[in-house]
Amino acid sequence: MRHLRPFLLVTLGAALLTGCGMFRGGDDPIEPPAELVDFDSTLRVDRLWSTRLGRGGDQLRLGLHPATNGTSVFAAGFAGRVTAVDFENGRRVWQTRLDEGLSAGPSYGDGMVAVGSVDGYLTLLDAETGEKRWSRFVGGELLAPPAVSSRAIVVRTVDGRLVALSPDDGRQLWLTEQPVPALTLRGNAPPVISSGFVVAAFDNGRLGVYQLTNGEPLWEQQIAAPAGRSELERLVDINTRPTVIGSTVYAVGYQGRLVAMELETGEVGWARDFSSYAGLGSDWERLYVVDAEGEVLAVSRRTGNSVWLNDRMRMRDLTAPQRVGESVVIGDYDGYVHWLSISDGEFQARVRTGSDRVIGLLPVGDAVIVQTADGRLDAYRPRGSD
Fold it and tell me: Tell me, what CATH number does 365's domain have?
């Protein structure tokens, strides 16, 4: 069933299990995806351009998401093609073919584009030309886009390691790791570089901040503790990218908590019980988050209190929400992209990119780039309110 819950990764034996209703116990009925409701559109959305990236690996739950430097959009397909296109018209700037199955990225930073592979290789390309600078084995499959800076490129591997490499030649600068539970959700939280630190989340429910230069931990905290009798009940993965705004880190985990913590001390500003594997969006006032059932919430960044709730896309395998203009944009398992009002969460517009799952959204100004699991890349921009 294509709409199923996230894949599970059994680390002993590396067996993949589909999540189709697996998180419900006993004889509880499986809730089907919500039928989409009709509404009066208040935005007119135009598709600016569309291009293909090659085979997408649509059943593999990969960490392939578009990135940008403001003028070009970088995207990758499972078959090994990394493509740069002009943001304004979608025309190809360059394309590089790598002889490996790509599974994470691309990520952009300081004139560099980094991608990761299912075989555990990190490859660095020149952002202007697509020329390969180097490729290095980092020890395990990469399912999270790397964090790229002029000082270090930081990657998370499926076996619990956080590795920093030199942008110059790919040599390892430092390594830290956390134990991986026997059963985890498939996917990893992308690391974040901010203010000379690396913020990283792990499958055992821990969140840590490390010195970018040497990997020394500033602090580590358990934001979700395993509970329950079965391995399924004890899942506490943090699979979503932490968000850093100013001096505050926001993070959310599966069967855990949504928390706000001080970047340099780890002090908890607020926390609330929450379960999510989709991720966070944000602006200066609010966080936008999808819970494990597919309900979309806006919460206050200052207090964590709920501002609004949209519960009409339950079980539709939603992407992380993205703030774009005066909207929150979200993709689903069936190729639909939804625009919600930032003020009350009501539907404003809806388009369909095709019939395959939306795997990544990238805001660029007042537009949004949409990547689908079958290797399609589209750009959309609202015309404005009626």
Answer: 2.130.10.10
Domain housing 226: 8-385
Considering the domain boundaries, does residue 70 fall inside one?
yes
Structural domain contains residue 2:
no
**Is 3 a domain residue?**
no
pTM of the model: 0.91
Domain count, the chain: 1
Give the pLDDT of the chain (386 residues) as one tens digit per residue: 333 344 554 433 333 333 333 344 445 568 899 999 999 999 999 999 999 987 655 556 789 999 999 999 999 999 999 999 999 999 999 999 999 999 999 999 999 999 999 999 999 999 999 999 999 999 889 999 999 999 999 999 999 999 999 999 999 999 999 988 777 777 789 999 999 999 999 999 999 999 999 999 999 999 877 777 777 776 778 889 999 999 999 999 998 899 999 999 999 999 999 999 998 999 999 999 999 999 999 999 999 999 999 999 999 999 999 999 999 999 999 999 999 999 999 999 999 999 999 999 999 999 999 999 988 999 999 985 44
Distance CA 35, CA 54 (A): 30
Q: Which residues contact 296 (CB under 8 A, 6 or more apart)?
A: 288, 289, 290, 309, 310, 311, 313, 318, 321, 328, 330, 340, 345
